[in-house]
Every structure is written in C-alpha cells, then in structure tokens.
Amino acid sequence: MIGKVLGGRYEILEKIGGGGMALVYKAKCRLLNRFVAVKILRSEFTGDEEFVKKFKRESQSAASLSHPNIVGIYDVGMEDDIYYIVMEYIKGQTLKELIKSKGALGVEYATNIALQIAAALEHAHMNHIVHRDIKSHNIMIKDDNTVKVTDFGIARAVSSCTITNTGNIIGSVHYFSPEQARGGYTDEKSDIYSLGVVMYELVTGRLPFEGETPISVALKHIQEEAVNPREINNRIPKSLEDIIMKAMEKDVSKRYSNVGEIIADLKQSLIMPNGDFVKKKKDVDENTKVIEPIKHIDVEEKLTVESKPEEKKIQPRSSKKITVIAILSGLFLALLIFGGYLIVNSIFNVKIENVPNVIGDSEEEARKELEALGFVMEVVEERVFNKDVPEGHIVRQDPKPETSNKVTNPVRVVLSKGPKKVPVPALVGKNYDEVDILLESVGLEEGEPSQEYSPYPSGIVIRQSILEGTEVDEGTKIDYVISGGPEKFFMTNFIGSNIEDVKKQLIVLDLILGNETPEFNDDVPKGVVINQTPKAGTEVSKKSVVDFVVSKGPEEKPIKKYLNVELPKNLDRMKVTIFKIEGDKSTLIYENTHSASDSPLRIEISGKGEVKFEVYINNSFHDSAVYNF
User: Fold this and answer.
1) Strand 147-149 relative to strand 377-379: parallel, antiparallel, unpaired?
2) Which residue did the predictor score with more confidence, 350 or 381?
3) 3-state DSSP helix/strand/coil percent for the chain, to nearest 5?
4) Do residues 576 and 565 lie in contact, with contact meaning Cβ atoms separated by under 8 Å?
5) Mean pLDDT score of the chain, rounded to an integer?
6) In what order do the strands lie in the sheet with 585-594?
7) Are residues 613 and 466 part of one domain?
8) Which is it for strands 585-594 and 574-582: parallel, antiparallel or unpaired?
9) For residues 77 and 4, is the Cβ–Cβ distance under 8 A?
10) How would you class 559 by CB atoms within 10 Å of its CB: exposed for 0-12, middle for 13-18, buried for 19 or more?
11) Domain carrying residue 601
C-alpha cells in the first residue's frame, strides 16, 4: 500500500494506526501539498456487504460534522476495491497513550480535556448523530493540548435504527453503557455514560471495571457499582466525582439529560471544586400519582346490579316436578364426570423428575443417565460443529438441565460434529497487528508470538507454526515468529582508515555508505576518515547507514603577492591612492600620506584571474601594473 496514489492525489506514505475494521495511513495530498490521514477498509472486509455499509456510514455521518474538537473529513472514495476516507492529519498522541505515560492527570487538565470531548459530542448530538464508541483510544491530543474526537465509525443518525445486535457488539466493552452491554436501545445517553468512563480514567488513571473476558466486563457494567474515584485519588474534588458518577448511572433516567448539562457542571466545578451543586435524579418523581386499577365488572353482575328486583310468581305443580328431575339429572351427571376424572387421573398421573445435565456427555453416557431416571432420549438428526465439544457428544438439550419434566416427555439432544475444519490463512509477510484479525475471521486463535532477527523489517511475520492452507480444527492456536529487524552488532571503528578501504569493509559488514563530507585537516592525510556516525562501539543493525567525514589534507594557502610603488623624489609629502580593477569594477584598496623617504612602498594585493592596479599621487595618475592570480 505504501507508495500507492489514491484518487490521483493522495500518496500513501506510512501506516500510523489501525482498528478492527480499517487501517490508517499518513498520506500527502499532491493537489494541496499537505499531509492527511487516510482510513482504508481492511482488504478482508471489502467483500463483506455489511462491513462496507458500516464504512460508508462512517464517512457520511462524520462528513456532516464540522467542529474544532472533531477530526475533519476532507474526502471519501473507492478505487480498485479500496474504500477510503481522507481525514485531517493530527500530530500528537491518543488520550490512552497520554494516560499510560502519565497516569492520573491533574484535575484542571483533566477537566479541560473532558470539556472539549463534551463539546464535540454536543455538536454531534445536535446533528442527530450518536458516536457509540467513545473511548480514550478514539480521542487525539494535539501538541497544543487541543482535543480531537475521531472515529465516528459506528455513529448512526438517531432517526434510524439504533438497536445494537448482541451477536455483533461493536466498540470497546470497557467503555460500554449497560444498555450497550445488553444489546439494547442506544442513544445520546449511551455516549454520556462512555464519557463518564473516560473522565473516570482521566482522574484515576484506571478503568472502572476490569475482567478476564469481555463478557465479565460487560456484566460488571450491568450489575456492579464502580469504586468512587476519590477512594482511588483523594485529590479529586467532590463536585467532579459527583459529575462522573451521575454520567455513569446505570439507570438511563438518572443520568444527565444531555451533554450541555455536563458542560455546565464541569465549568461550575472549576469555580466551586467542593460544591454540592450536581443534582441527583430520584427513582420516582414526587409528582407522580399512583392510579388505582380499574375494577372489572362482569356483564352478568352489571345486569344484576342494574335490574329491578322481580316480583315472586306462583309456579304451577308441573313446573316443580320438572325442576326436581333436572336437579337429580344434574347430580347424576356430576357424579359420572367426577368418577371419570378419577379414572383418567389414575391412568395419566405420571412421575416428574429434574432433567440431569448431559451436555458434554457421549450419546451412550447420556442415554444411560436419562433412562436410569425414566426419561427417553431423542436425538435430533442434524448435528452441529462445535470446537469445545468432541464429535458424538451432546451440545444442547431440551428441556434445559435441572428443569422439572414428566418422565414420559422425551429429552431431545443435539450431537456435535466436532470442531469445524478451516484453512489456515497466510500470516507470513503481514504486519503483526493484523494477525489477530486474520485468525479470528476464520475461527482460529492467536498463539504465542516470538521474535528473532532477520533481514525483514521489524514487526513483519516471517514464520507461522502451521502452513498456509492447512486444514485444522476451528479454535486451533497458531503460533508465529515476528522479525526483530536485522541482527544487531557493535559498530567498527573506521577512523584513521582510508575511505576506499572502508567502502569495501561496509560491503562485507552489510552496511550502507551514507554521506561523505570532505574537510581540510593539517594533521590527517587526504582520503583518510576523520569522523564517523554512528560512533564506534554503538549497537547497530545490518543495512544501517554510516556517514563519514573524510580529510582533504592540509588547506593550500595562497601565495602572497605585493605591488611595489616607486615614489617621486621631488615631493616631500604626497597622498598615495591605489585602485584594484577587476573587469568593469574598480575598488579603492589603499590610501595614505607618505614622504619620498618611504619609497619604495610594498603593498600586499589579492584577486581572481587577471587584475589591474592603478597608482595615483596627489590624485594624478602615476603608474599601473597587471597581475594574474
């Protein structure tokens, strides 16, 4: 990619960063003669329609934003299946790098950074764009301490669907809001929570939640309360702690309503560090009234209530007989039904047991365990790949383990086909930071990296434990070897050697001749090395460039020439003036008063090429002479 020109104007110079979806390069805009950053979608994703959509969405959403604290977007394009975005080039470091190098930042400095991040988010939210991936890695700090928020890669207009697919969780789990961790609805308040995490990291030097796996961290965001920042750093003022904890409320309704409120409180915290002005929202609003449930009135009951009582009527004798017969018939039918129920219940009343956990068992082991409890095992015909469960063993069961179930109901199980076979991708020649992406994309795991010296640039993979194209089980770990660059050795001392001999030694040592700087030296013969860079004894790599200062020998001093002037003997005092004429230029080089006894005058002269000298006595021409230099 280095050296490629995109869009006929952006020359790729060097790689400066990258993420899971794209790589970032420094480039030169030939049209405007300035440096830019070019974000390029990783080649393995260009055939994935969903990833391409996300990449295009980034360019569309970010290009609509214009704010001093947001990285500017200059251009977007596609060329030869390369999808790219041209952005403002930021000279500086990420906030993550700053925190790693300095730890917890000073309160005022941290507050200033937080205010600039908040200003960027406020502008985005006003344009109906939610960032959804606010983290210290996506925040650049310029050399003048200006903050630039970048990577609106998963930003999405609020008006469109903002449900995060739990099967495709995006972003960094350490900065997730609880609703993002659950895969639920996300809006501006999700950015507010993530901003709270960043502020927490700014003033404590650490993240609020850590865990061995992303899932464990996500669960902590949902279930656990973070340690109060002042318990970690007692220099944090009360007001700033209140702001951070309100932004990080797990209940969305208790957080700040918008970023503007955070900005107002942050500014107030600089004036009243220990003030108690941060308003906390209650669980239930005091003005909320509990509405009594509407009582349901049955239609028959309503009719009974509203009807007027009827007058008693005298029934004839025949009606009474019919009534008695109806009552007796009803009793007989009730007895018949109850007896039938007892018979049926005695037939169908079956034993209920807890279903055991047979996941991971072999088919034979599971069948024996279930049959011992009276269950019947039913194997689902379709088997599934599973890297953690051996072939022929149980992957899933229904009903789930420890569920109460009648023994007459079958327990359905799904068997494993074992790990899926996948081809090992080519790692050799790739940069080490691409290895995890390549392996994860095919279901393999990154193994142990090692390093050794080689002629290849530092960081390039030079060997992999399993050859490219080999079919292996899904989940297999692939080890690899990274180049540490050319082998190191101590620089030879070339001072005092003839430069021609040195050039031959450089070829043998696999070093590169750099600049030869000639310099006059009265003590060192011509062609001999006076100085070298790097110095002798310095640890260097093969292919290193070596510069030399080489003696030109003693500097040749020019031969002095003199102009002899005979003065007139008949003048006691006279003014002598001498002019040097070079081409069309005449220069006064001597003027003084003399007596006849000073004759002859001996005047030192200099010049280039053929030079004429004219002598005047008392402003009258006296003599001239021509010299060659």
Assistant:
1) unpaired
2) 381
3) 30, 30, 40
4) yes
5) 82
6) 585-594, 574-582, 610-617, 620-628
7) no
8) antiparallel
9) no
10) exposed
11) 561-628
Residue 174 pLDDT > 50: yes
Is 392 domain-assigned?
Answer: yes
Q: Is residue 311 one of the residues assigned to a domain?
A: no
Q: What is the pLDDT of residue 587?
A: 92
Query: Per residue in 570-627, pLDDT tens?
Result: 888 999 999 999 888 899 999 999 998 999 999 999 888 899 999 999 999 999 999 9
Sequence letter at residue 301:
E
Q: Are 467 and 424 in contact (CB under 8 A)?
A: yes
120 lies in the same domain as 247 = yes
> Cis omega (within 30 of 0) on the bond before 525?
no
Last residue of a domain, one of 57, 73, 88: 88
DSSP calls for 95-164: HHHHHHHH-SPPHHHHHHHHHHHHHHHHHHHHTTEE-----GGGEEEETT--EEE---TT-EETTS--BP
Q: Tell whether 39 is in a known binding site.
A: yes
pLDDT at 311 over 50: no
Q: Which pLDDT score, from 0 to 100, does residue 164 have?
A: 39
Count of domains for the chain:
6
Mean pLDDT of 179-199: 88
Neighbours of 511 (CB within 10 A): 22
The answer to whether the predicted template modeling score (pTM) of the entire model surpasses 0.85 is: no
359, part of any domain: yes
Q: Measure the CA dihedral 109/112/113/119, to 10°.
A: 180
For 354-378, what is the mean pLDDT? 91
pLDDT at 415: 93
Same domain, 458 and 589: no
Cα(479)–Cα(446) distance, integer angstroms: 7
| 181 and 239 share one domain | yes
| Inside any domain, residue 321 | no
CATH number where 396 lies: 3.30.10.20
- pLDDT tens digits, one per residue of 410-461: 999 999 988 888 999 999 988 877 888 889 888 899 888 888 877 777 778 9
| Same domain assignment for residues 131 and 194 | yes
Other beta carbons within 10 Å of 65: 19
DSSP 612: E
Please say which residue of 551, 570, 587 terminates a domain. Answer: 551
- In the predicted structure, residue 43 carries a pLDDT above the cut 50: yes
For the chain, the distance separating the N- and C-terminal CA atoms, rounded to the nearest angstrom, is: 59
Check 133, 151, 242, 265 and give the catalytic one: 133
pLDDT exceeds cutoff 60 at 155: no
Whether 207 has a pLDDT exceeding 50, the answer reads yes
Same domain? 43 vs 150: no
Cα 360–chain centre separation: 39
Q: Is the domain of 508 the same as that of 600?
A: no
User: CA-to-CA distance for 132 and 142, rounded, in angstroms?
Assistant: 23
Which range is least confidently modeled, 40-54, 109-123, 495-509? Answer: 40-54
* Residue 413: both structure tokens together: 């199980």
Which amino acid would we find at residue 128?
H
N residues, the chain: 629
The three-class DSSP label of residue 192 is: helix
Q: What pLDDT score does 285 carry?
A: 44
48 catalytic per annotation: no
Residue 542's nearest CA partner among 482, 481, 491, 483 is 491
Indicate if 224 and 253 belong to the same structural domain: yes
Side-chain-side CA neighbours of residue 480 (13 Å): 30
Cβ contacts of residue 435 below 8 Å, gap of 6+?
A: 427, 446, 449, 461, 480
